[in-house]
Each structure stands twice: as C-alpha cells, then as structure tokens.
C-alpha cells in the first residue's frame, strides 16, 4: 500500500508539474504574441507619424519654393525695367518678364532651404519664435519686402551710398517689426553675406551684370535686399511650421 500511495502521489505531482509547465509555456507564448502585436502597432504608428512629418515637410518646401520663385520673377522684372540688372540677350525669355529661365527655380530653391532652416534653427537653439505669429503679420512682412525692392528700383538718390543706407534702415526696420529674434538676425546676416558672394561670382563670370556697380561687381544695397528677403522667407517658413492646428500667438 505505501508503494501504491507513493506511486499515485508521484504521478499526481508529475501531472501538476507538467500542467504548471504547460500553463507557464502557454502564458509565455501569449505574452510573446501580445508583445509582438504591441511592437507591430507601435512601429506602424511611428511609420505613419514619420510619413505625415515627411508629407508636411514636403508641403512646406513646395509652398516656399512657389512663393520664392514668384517673388523672384516679379522683383527681377522691376530691376530689369529700371535697367538695374542686365542679362545677355541670348539668355533672355522675352515672353516671361524678359527674365531668364534659371532665376525663378534658383530663387525658389533658396527660399525653400531658408524657410525650412529657420524653424530648425529655432528648435535647435531652444528658442521658439513667438513674436507676431499670425498670417496677417507674415503677409505684411512680404508686402514690406516687396516695397523695399520697389524702392531699390524706383527711388532716385544723389548717389548709391544714400540709397544703400536708406535700404539698410528699412531692412533693419523690417526685422525689428516682424522678427526681433537673435537667430533671425544672425541668419539674415549670414544669408546676405553668402548670397552677395554668389552674386559677385556670377557677375564676375559674365552670367549677368549690374549697371552703375559700386560694390565690386554689383550694387552696394544688394546685401540689404538679401537680408530682408531672408527675414521674410524665414517668417513664412516659421508660420508654415506651426501647423494648421496650432493657434497663433499675438504679442
């Protein structure tokens, strides 16, 4: 009898152990399945978020490219009508504002780069730009920028130095009125320097030329135009980066 009882007891223990092992294995397999499902859901969510961010980024770049190309076409027309800028006749497109084919795409690409760079710099510095974050302010900034370009082509001064000082004051006023950020000022100065250097190289190689050049191969007021243009495109890029769901902040 003891041996029979011991045998039954050992059989029941082995059954319990095997049952516990199978239960633990089943729970582990179910936990693994749940973890795989959760991981799949998280990866799909991250993939969807990344795709949305890429689409938003591409949409902002397209808007900036279109605005930059259009402004370049209109403002270049002002310069050509006043004989400020001269292009070779064989490169001119008389049916499109007497400009050249490469001006709008080049300026549009530069506008897209600058407009996407401004919010990235703000995020990197940890200083989000909050001054006059509204579309009405952006539209006024664009209007003032067009006015500064119009003044550079239409206003007649005794010499280019007076015109350059006037445009420099207007450009600083544009930055103070619509930006007032250190990052905006620093990027504007950097853009003005690099763009002026590129223009010097283009004029030096005979791509086009400026009449009455007084700053090496171009005009002394050209850095002011690039500075104000950088601030304007930067504000547009910042506004686009806010997204449609974020409410604008008024100071």
Automatic annotation (TrEMBL):
Source organism per UniProt: Megalops atlanticus (Tarpon)
Transmembrane segments: 62-81, 157-178, 185-208, 220-237
Protein name from the UniProt record: Insulin-induced gene protein
Membrane topology: Multi-pass membrane protein
InterPro entries: INSIG_fam
Cellular component aspect of the GO annotation: SREBP-SCAP-Insig complex
Pfam families referenced in this protein's UniProt entry, alphabetically: INSIG
Listed GO MF terms: lipid binding
Function noted in UniProt: Mediates feedback control of cholesterol synthesis.
Broad class of where this protein is predominantly found: endoplasmic reticulum
Keywords: Cholesterol metabolism, Endoplasmic reticulum, Lipid metabolism, Lipid-binding, Membrane, Steroid metabolism, Sterol metabolism, Transmembrane, Transmembrane helix
PANTHER family recorded: INSULIN-INDUCED GENE 1 (PTHR15301), INSULIN-INDUCED GENE 1 PROTEIN (PTHR15301:SF11)
Example GO biological process: SREBP signaling pathway
Family: Belongs to the INSIG family.
Subcellular location: Endoplasmic reticulum membrane
């Amino acid at each position: 009898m003891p041996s029979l009882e011991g045998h039954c007891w050992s059989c029941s223990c082995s059954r319990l152990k095997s049952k516990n092992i199978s239960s633990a294995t089943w729970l582990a397999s179910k936990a693994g399945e749940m973890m795989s499902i959760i991981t799949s859901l998280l990866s799909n969510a991250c993939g969807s978020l990344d795709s949305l961010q890429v689409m938003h980024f591409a949409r902002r770049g397209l808007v900036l490219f279109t605005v930059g190309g259009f402004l370049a076409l209109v403002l270049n027309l002002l310069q050509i009508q006043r004989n400020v800028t001269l292009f070779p006749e064989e490169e001119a497109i008389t049916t499109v504002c007497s400009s050249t084919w490469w001006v709008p795409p080049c300026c549009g690409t530069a506008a897209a780069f600058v407009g996407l760079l401004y919010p990235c710099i703000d995020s990197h510095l940890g200083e989000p730009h909050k001054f006059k974050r509204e579309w009405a302010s952006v539209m006024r900034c664009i209007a003032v920028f067009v006015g500064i370009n119009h003044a550079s082509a239409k206003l007649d001064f005794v010499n280019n130095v007076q015109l350059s000082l006037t445009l420099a004051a207007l450009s600083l006023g544009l930055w103070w009125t619509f930006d007032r950020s250190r990052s905006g000022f620093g990027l504007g100065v950097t853009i003005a320097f690099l763009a002026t250097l590129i223009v010097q190289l283009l004029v030096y190689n005979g791509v086009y030329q400026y009449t009455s050049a007084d700053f090496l191969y171009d005009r002394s007021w050209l850095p002011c135009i690039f500075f104000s243009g950088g601030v304007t495109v930067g504000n547009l890029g910042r506004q686009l980066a806010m997204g449609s769901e974020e409410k604008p902040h008024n100071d």
